[in-house]
Amino acid sequence: MNKTILEERKSQMHRIGEEPFAMACDRPSLAGAVSQRACVFCGSRVVLYPIADALHLVHGPIGCATYTWDIRGAISSGPQLHRLSFSTDLQEMDVIFGGEKKLEASLRELISLHSPKAAFVYSTCIVGLIGDDMEAVCRRVSADTGIPVLPVMSEGFKGNKREGYAAACKAMFRLVGTGDTTGISPMSVNILGDFNLAGETWIVREYFKRMGVEAVANITGDGRVDDIRRCHGAALNLVQCSGATMELAKMMEEKYGIPYQRVSYLGVEDMADSLYKVADFFADKDPDIKAKTVALVREELSVLMPKLAELRRDLEGKKVAMYVGGSFKAFSLIKAFRHLGMRVVVVGSQTGTEEDYKELAAISDPGTIIVDDANPLELAQFIKEKDVDVFVGGVKERPIAYKLGVGFCDHNHERKIALEGFIGMYNFAKEIHASVMSPVWKFMPRRAAGRVTCTTKEAVNG
Length: 462
Fold this sequence. Notes:
Belongs to the NifD/NifK/NifE/NifN family. By secondary structure, this protein is α/β, with parallel strands linked by helices.
């Protein structure tokens, strides 16, 4: 390992083929390491935020609400209430005397103004420290207004983003089972863990419609409170972002007996496999569903594959580094890049488990670096070491790529182009091609013999 890698961090890195697999993960971030992770509160917000007809109120300082405003970028086919960020704006006197009165007054005013289908109230670090009884306030306001008012116990200091996912699932589960399931088809699914950043949920729902499968609830992209209330009537839960919504799927299986399957809508193979899984599940209810699914996939691939072959001519042999939030993306992206003739040489995630990383190691090439909970210095070092052509990440990783003279592809919350489904694979390939083949890299001397444009530290700090 390079000297820029802290000794305490080495156990959270693995180089495939150089040593037996052993990797520490799912642990608190190392103090002072400038982790790319977010807090518990942020994790809960990214899951619940896309529920478009709910009120979202942050009980805490204004900075917490500002930090997470429009954090998912999730688009809605109707209501836009989720795009408004409300805060109780706790001040010093509230810390001393408590913020319950301010919270109750805020809830009553906002519910009166916006008439939401439900309200989510997020606790922050300050609330956890001063001990406001959010549960009691929410229960009282709910009884008076007649709408569900749901506390989200997401104090940031409790852990990391993964604990925030769990807090969000527990809050949502209070809604499940409170709606009427009349009229739901026996061939029905809930779409869990897709956030409709650029309309992807609509693409996937259209595929299911062509197969004859009803999508009951989007959880949570383009989500609706009433759909979540009746989602226990669906026959199957499809879980894409397993870190964010797997706990909800498990709770629904335990209480309502609804099975779940892990799926991915990213890339050619995983999109097709996900549709085939659904077809297999409902084959006893519709003998024609497998044939309809095969026809759907064949039709989509007949258009897609010639386009990918054209882009692959330029991309063959190029190297990729990626750092994603949920590790499920990494599995699909590795397969997607192989369709483009590209090789992933660095892969990491914020919230992966040991099982996730073992699976990554099994499908990755020898020499690939796997890293958990990376920081900017580490990512910059690995990008330089592996001499990559394009870096796939989120908004926090973008400056690292550009300062090192590397192409970048945003695969996180801020993107505006759909990257899921078969059309999404083509959009992704076009974006990668445009980034890697841009003529601007002719002016970057980072690969010239004996020359380096900046040191690792300079690359990160500017």
